[in-house]
Amino acid sequence: MSLFTPIIMYDLAGSPGAPIFSPAATRLRLSMLAKGVPFIVKEITYIELRREWCGKSKPLGVEEATVPFIKLPDGTFLMDSLVIAPWLDVNFPNLPSIYLPTAPLPLDTKAPAYLEALVEEELFRKSLRWPGLFNLYAPGIIKTFTKADAEYFTSDARLGEGEWSKIATADYESSVAALKAQMPALEAQLASPDGFFFSATHPNFKDFHVMGMHRMLASVDASATKRVFDGNIGAWVQRMRDRFGEGLAEVERRDPVV
């Protein structure tokens, strides 16, 4: 596939200029930056996602559209970071792997080491727990939505009967404490105290996934983010910022500050 025509990646904000918050879109953005695939970001709002992309007759052809999705140079679309990331490795074998960045090039996506890396990443992602995160994130992010979008986002139809009331009345300090309590277990999975989750020198999709969860909190609450992602995990966040430079900084500039 040609490297000269950029892929269009669709990301989400509650309203124009509001913080970028999607964890899945964040992990894909970082995947594409790490891979070195030319891409441009097209930002859509929550209401645009619902009105223009949801429905069998719309371009994605699905009832429930989610970000991220990408538009390829031939006009076709792919949706879901867990689908797109391995697709990128398969279709751009001469660029560094998203899942096994230390693999020799051209990448062999059928090699046992690569397949093992896929399994390891999935087990890692599914092992993580983020108690309290949604309670901290949701009440803040809906402030960036239109009234109609906020009503839908908090509705019983979307969350289940009575769920929003539980989220909206959750104790703030208890939520922060519950989330922070997970950090020692997360820190223990770093390949080295001054490295990344994949290896001492290279991040991979594991790191991109954790940065996606960090993005949720950072998009609404700078103080809680610093309290939760501190110590060695805070140092890891800074290493990710250093590694991805402007590609990550352009997202973080829209976050609230303490």
Description:
- There is one protein chain.
- The protein has 258 residues and is α+β, with helices and mostly antiparallel strands.
- The protein is 51% helix and 8% strand.
- It has helices at 23-35, 46-53, 81-91, 112-127, 133-141, 147-153, 156-159, 163-168, 172-180, 183-187, 205-218, 222-228, 231-252; strands at 7-13, 39-45, 69-71, 77-79.
- A four-stranded mixed sheet has the order 2-1-3-4.
- Strand 1 (7-13), helix 1 and strand 2 (39-45) form a beta-alpha-beta unit.
- The radius of gyration is 18 Å and the shape is globular.
- The N and C termini lie far apart (44 Å).
Global outline: globular
- The count of strands amounts to 4
One letter per element, helices H and strands E, the order comes to: EHEHEEHHHHHHHHHHH
Global Rg: 18 Å
Task: Tell me the number of helical segments per DSSP (H or I, 4 or more residues long).
Answer: 13
SSE class: alpha+beta
Which sequence of strands runs across the widest sheet? Answer: 2-1-3-4
- Averaging pLDDT over every residue, what do you get? 96
The proportion of strand residues reads: 5-15%
| Helical content class | 40-55%
Span from first to last CA?
44 Å
Which regions have little confidence, pLDDT < 50, spanning 5+ residues?
A: none
The biggest sheet amounts to: 4 strands, mixed
